[in-house]
Design goal:
By secondary structure, this protein is mainly α.
Length: 217
């Protein structure tokens, strides 16, 4: 990952409990430092992209504003004000950062008295006609999958399952032509049936890890 999405770190997995952390904090419970890091890891890049596209911010200004937004969530009752009955946490974050960025943008313009505002060129999303809201959703889904993959790789390392990860990476994450099961079996010295088992296990764990990360969604 680049420096933007690395903020918050890859971290460990979300707690596997199905009790909603969102309901707990919105009911007045405290958010832990680990949970805050997990939120930042999942939402940093979507927020950064949204701010840069929506408000035409430079790379550095968008990063500063994104960092300020996350700092503000700690200083005020941001999580406690979230109501799960009114919508998803993802939408709540997007609307909150839009208000935050708009206020910061307006304050900056007032200081400049309407002058000296530099509008940055936008990347390929603008040319494709993608809205800031769609961009936020797409970046969120991509970051969710990226973090879940990192969780799976870390789990394989902890559990001493390097072959399982290597098979999954070579087959399901292949950028070009996939190797056959026979080729993978020969490469790792295992039967074809074992390749099938490895892939089934890795896919199942990835689905579970995605759901663990979706706690804050």
């Amino acid at each position: 990952m680049d420096a933007d999405t690395a903020i918050g770190g890859a971290g460990d997995r979300f707690p596997s409990t199905r009790f909603s952390l969102l309901e707990a904090v919105s009911a007045g419970g405290a958010i832990t430092e680990d949970a805050m890091e997990q939120v930042a890891a999942l939402y940093w890049k979507p927020v950064y992209r949204f701010v840069r596209w929506k408000f035409r911010q430079s790379n550095e200004d968008a990063k500063d504003l994104t960092q300020s937004f996350f700092a503000s969530t700690i200083e005020r009752d941001f999580f406690q004000r979230f109501d799960p009955a009114r919508g998803s946490f993802r939408t709540y974050v997007r609307m909150a950062v839009e208000r935050f960025a708009a206020n910061e943008y307006a304050a900056g313009n007032r200081l400049k008295r309407g002058g000296g505002v530099a509008f940055e060129p936008i990347d390929e999303q603008a040319a494709a006609g993608e809205s800031p809201e769609d961009l936020f959703e797409r970046e969120w889904r991509r970051q969710l999958f990226t973090l879940a993959l990192e969780d799976l790789r870390a789990e394989c390392e902890r559990a001493a399952k390097p072959v399982q990860w290597a098979v999954f990476e070579a087959y399901d994450l292949a950028e070009g032509d996939r190797p056959s099961y026979a080729e993978l079996g020969a490469r790792h010295g295992v039967a074809i049936s074992q390749i099938t088992n490895y892939l089934a296990w890795a896919r199942g764990r990835l689905r579970a890890l995605v759901e663990d990360r979706r706690v804050w969604s």
